[in-house]
Each structure stands twice: as structure tokens, then as C-alpha cells.
Amino acid sequence: MMKEIILVTGATGTVGQEVVKSLLNKNVKIRVGVRDIDKIKNTPWFNQVESIILDYEKPETIKNALKGVSKLFLVTAPGTYQEENVAKSILAQAKGQELKHIVRLSGMGADKHNLFANHNAADNLLLSSSINYTALQPNTYMQNFYNYSTSIKAQQKIIEPAAGSKESFIDVRDIAAVAATVLTQSGHENKIYELTGGESLNYYQVAKQFSEVLKKEIVYQPLTEQEYISAKEAEGMPSEFVKRFVAFFQMVRNGEYAHVLPSVEKILGKPPITLKQFIMDYRDKFVS
Ligand SMILES: NC(=O)c1ccc[n+]([C@@H]2O[C@H](COP(=O)([O-])OP(=O)(O)OC[C@H]3O[C@@H](n4cnc5c(N)ncnc54)[C@H](OP(=O)(O)O)[C@@H]3O)[C@@H](O)[C@H]2O)c1
Description:
The protein has 288 residues and is α/β, with parallel strands linked by helices. It has a domain at 5-138: NAD(P)-binding Rossmann-like Domain (Rossmann fold, 3-Layer(aba) Sandwich). It has helices spanning 14-23, 59-65, 83-94, 117-127, 149-155, 172-184, 203-214, 225-235, 239-253, 263-268, 275-281, and strands at residues 5-9, 29-34, 50-53, 69-74, 101-105, 132-138, 157-160, 166-167, 191-195, 201-202, 219-222. The longest helix is centred in the C-terminal third of the chain and has 15 residues, at 239-253. The chain is globular, with a radius of gyration of 19 Å. It starts with a strand and ends in a 7-residue tail after the last helix. Bound molecules: NADP nicotinamide-adenine-dinucleotide phosphate. NADP nicotinamide-adenine-dinucleotide phosphate binds at residues 9-10, 12-16, 34-36, 39, 54-57, 75-78, 105, 107, 138, 140-141, 144. NADP nicotinamide-adenine-dinucleotide phosphate (NAP) is lined by residues 9-10, 12-16, 34-36, 39, 54-57, 75-78, 105, 107, 138, 140-141, 144.
């Protein structure tokens, strides 16, 4: 029997590359759709996948990439906010093709906040389409802590406007493992999965875990909203992004990202990766 073809998008990005790795040991043919094939040439998996040009802004590349594909892992880039347009384009280009199931990286709270209106619109559009759909709505990635690697190395500090509020951070390797399971097992069609890590931690607790693993004191410095805005403006962050992060941290401070769900363990049959394990696995990123 011919292996089914799964198309993975976003494979140069944080989650997509882990989805490719998670699919390698499944009995499927992986096609990776990227804007620039040179960007993946040095990955350890390059020779185990088929690579194809795919740019959401060029519909003919979507049509071409979908040929013979039965399942799709769909990532939209942060900052484009065109999630709904990308979903529309995929559905249009999938007409008359064999696509049966789309698994899309959405975000936790997509249906609750204006901030994520575009994710929500894309989820609703795909849920109401004739193609099976699964929305993955993860909480904040542990891998976002890479953003602190400079401040952890240089100042031994983690700096955020999160006050003492908690988040159930999730490792993207768990998101990817869930995606690979959903893409290769039946029973997950037309579902929305909110995904969290297994523990809810505030940034003081996060800093303590970094201190323990890195064996040096890392301190959490909470910022006021205004201090955060000034710091991001000074870094040159575009005001659109600053506004989004400010709104996001308001929700974090309201405790909206603190809950722990059993979804990852239910789907994978094993507990989610802990923050401690994440720091141990990526220790090199946080030490000079
Ligand atoms: N960060 C978090 O904590 C978090 C939590 C929950 C949900 N999310 C959601 O996760 C998504 C982002 O995933 P990620 O972190 O894996 O993203 P990422 O690392 O920024 O990667 C984005 C990917 O999208 C690709 N891309 C950009 N524009 C494209 C286009 N026009 N056509 C085809 N591909 C294009 C990029 O390819 P190039 O290399 O060509 O640019 C890259 O592979 C967002 O929708 C965000 O809302 C994030």
C-alpha cells in the first residue's frame, strides 16, 4: 500500500520543525512546504523528506504543494495576522484534491479574546469546512524562554510584566508529538484541543528552576506595564507588537493562562515535559 503524504508547513519555525521530527518514526511520507528550501538543507532530516516551495501569498504554490496530500499541518507566522486568509486560500486550493484532514496551530484563548480574533476566525472557518479539522490551541511555549537567553547569560535575570501570575508553559516537543498523533491516528477529527504543560508556574518559580539547573542565581524582575512598554520601544519593537504583548500580559496577570489541562497526557499517554527537563535539555542556550 502507498504511504499517505502529510504536508508540513512552518518547518523552518519553532513548532513545524519539531512536527517533522515527530513524524519521522510514523509510517508516512513527509512533504515539507517552505518558502526557501536552502533554509532546511542543513537539517538532519532533509534527506528523509520531500521538499517543495510553498508561500501562502502565492496560491499556485499551495495548489502544487497539496497534490496527492491527504493531511496537512498548518502553521501561520506570528505577526502576519492573516490566519483566516491563509485558511481560505488553503480551502480554495484544496478543491478537487485529496486533502482529508487539516491540523492547525492555533493558540490558547483563541475564542476568548479579540487579540486572537484571526486565529478564531480561521478555526471556525476550517471547522465548518467539508475537510476534517483539528485545532491545536497551546499555551505559551517553554521555548519562548530562548528570548531570555541574553538576559539570563548577561544579567542572570528574567524580565517580564507578569507580576506573580502563573502560566502552564508547554514544551513545543509535546505540541509536535500531539500534532503527529492527531495526524496519524483517527478519532481526533473536528476537535479543538487546548494544550498545556503539566504544572503552573509563576516567573519567580521559573527563575528558581533556572537557578537550580544552571547552578547560578537567576532572578525574576517583574516590570510595570509602563516599564515594559518603554523597554520594548527602546529595543525598537513595532508598536503593533508592543500592544499585543501588553494585552497578552494583562491576560496573564488576570490568571487566564494558569490552568493545567490533562489533554497532552490523554493524547500522548505520557505526562507533559516539565520545565526542569526543558532547561536541562537546552542548558547550552542559557550558559555562555
Ligand atoms: N509563541 C507562543 O508561545 C505561542 C503559543 C501558542 C500559539 N502560538 C502560535 O504559533 C504560531 C507560530 O508558530 P511558530 O512559533 O512555530 O512560528 P515561527 O517559529 O515564527 O515560524 C513561522 C513559520 O511560518 C513560515 N511562514 C511565514 N510566512 C510564510 C508564508 N508566507 N508562506 C509560508 N510559510 C510562511 C515561516 O517560514 P520562513 O522561514 O520562510 O519565514 C516559519 O517556518 C502562531 O500562529 C502563534 O499564534 C504561539
